[in-house]
Amino acid sequence: MLERLGHVTVRRRRAVLSAAAVFVLVALAWGTGVFGRLTGGGFEDPGSESTRAAALAEQALGRDAVDAVVVYRAAVGGPTVDQPAYRDTVVGLLDRLPDDAVVAATSYWSTGGAPALVADDGRTTYVALRLAGVDDAGREAAYERIADDLVAPAASGLETLRGGPVPTSLAVNDQVSADIARAESLSIPVLLVLLVVVFGGLAAASLPLAIGGLAVLGAFTALRVISLATDVSVFAVNIVTMLGLGLAIDYALFVVSRFREELAAGHDTERAVVRTMVTAGRTVLFSGLTVALALSAMLLFPLGFLRSMGFGGVAAVLVAMVGSLTVLPAILAVLGERVNALRVPLPGAARRRQSEVQAPDRGAWHAIASAVMRRPVLVVAGLTVVLVAMGTPFLRVAFGSPDARVLPVGTEERVAAEVLERSFPGSATRPIDVVVRLAGPAADAGPELQGYADRLAAVPGVTSVAAAGLAGDTARLSLTYAPDPVSERARALVDTVRAVPGPAGSDVAVGGLTAANADTLAAIGRTLPWALLWVVGGMLLLLFLAFGSVVLPIKAVLMNVLSLGAAFGAVVWIFQDGYGSGLLGFTSVGSVEASQPVLMFAIAFGLAMDYEVFLLSRIREEWLRTGDNAQAVAVGLQRTGRIITSAALLLVVVIGAFATSGVTFIKMIGVGVAIAIVVDATVVRALLVPATMRLLGRWNWWAPAPLARLHARVGIDEAQPEPRDGRRAVAGGRPDPAYATMNG
Fold first, then answer.
1. Which CATH code, of 3.30.457.10, 3.40.50.620, 3.40.1130.10, 3.30.70.920, is assigned to 431-511?
2. Judging by DSSP bridges, how do beta strands 592-593 and 399-400 pair with one another?
3. d(Cα 451, Cα 449) in Å, to the nearest integer?
4. What is the pLDDT of residues 493-509, one digit of tens each?
5. Which CATH architecture has domain 67-163?
6. What would the pLDDT profile of 81-93 be if each residue is shown by its tens digit?
7. Separation CA 656–CA 670 (nearest Å)
């Protein structure tokens, strides 16, 4: 298949490149319009009890959500809330708000002086706004119309802080856009320099960046199409940029490096392209499929955030893969030997090239592999202990939910949330909503509702219970409580409230922010086993199809678990415990946002398989040539060590740039995945893989006879490499016994 594709791309290179140019123009003109269609949020389970509670309340009582909260406060010695000047300033601002933008504004003065709306200092109050609009986009547009009109004039002596769900969502969106621009401005110059160092010339170095740009634009176009059918979170843009650019550069690095190697071996351009396709191209194909498979697991979760990340990630990976297997070979066919043009003189480059020509299978990586394989038990035992120790902090992980604290310190929306939390304790702006659908008219159920309210008030942690609406057969009660609304204690309180029996014959649904957070965690917990089964099962199948072994896929999964465990432990240590928070510029809230480990697992597991497939593919080539397991491992690592290290470094630059994000959980992804890549590309690939393959010996390539026959029929094999002694290797991963030496 890939051999035929190689011939086609060479012979029809102009048509391929013309089609690619048209695609890029469409992506620039139409695909980038996805930015105007992205939504915020997506961290709730749409099928949960909390979602049902909100729907029941809105259907019976009308929408009563708080969309924006505006805090007004005076300095010490300034006017108090009860003074006419304070009242006239704030009420005057509210009276001038247009009715088609603000449906309701609840303030200290509109409630007749409700004490809960004034802080203990007497100088701080807040206004809760319900905005017009049938969806998030409409309410965001309404807020943007009035945002400036909410600010108290400087002469009044009042400070204004705008926050709440809609302003915070808009602030996060703006921060994401700024983060992407900063990440690209930081990473692309560094990538170009590193690629020049890797390739030694500008012509070859420019190709991975070109494919990276194509992958990002193509993924944006795919997201634009997806957004026509479903909501897509604004955070999907991060994963598109991260993986589209990073993986396209990795894949192009593999392909261009192998093409230059084939040219150096004396092949003409067409033969070099075809040989590249059946070797590096095969690796790219399997790598793309494995990474896409890992990311597709996020589509199993009901959360819009994770589903959007799945859509964006799969789109980015597949476009990067297709571009590397079609557009890049066509460019290489046009360039031919000119791929080595515009060389940049680098210290030691000529000596290294000469060494690679004279002894391509000998070098530092061969020496490392040989040294490791002389003491495999010691290496495996020692490194396993180290990686397990690095992962132990994850055993005490505390899961939380995102709030305004994901924004940088000093952001207005975050400061507003902090003032509300500090000055108005008792979760007044984020109550637990209890929606009761009664057997009869709610107006006739006073005693039953009062009894239920009394039982709720008796729950430890609940500070007040108030009626918040009555219509038809539906009533809503609003509960304030002592714990932090996003804490584990608050989620436990939701469970206790849900266990309180409602009025006889009634249907009770408990909602609100804290209940939604609890439901989100429950949804992740229910779906996670199926997602793990999908990823691990799919990886085992794909790797079996690639290598015809049942041992290598199992070993690869175990290696990935070790490297991921180390990365997860580091994330808990950094983001939950707060070590390094000053250096990285974030505030630790004592927990890890629950969806982030899922996202990190999908990304890092897929990327780890990327390097696994690349290394094992080259080892397999040597195994088919010689049948010598130890030699195959050493030569395979020698031929791929520099490329894998370079690819990992380039990917760390791309993903690590997101560690500069102002949004804490995006920063967490950048740091966590970068750590996973570093551990995987160094400790695992360079040390653990050679050691374990030495221990397993001939069993690396073993499969039961029925599965071996199955692989012979359905396995994905290209033309086999010619053995060095002239004898023929047999397809299916088993060398001819006449020359094979299956020594350990």
1. 3.30.70.920
2. parallel
3. 5
4. 999 999 999 999 999 99
5. 2-Layer Sandwich (3.30)
6. 999 999 999 999 9
7. 5
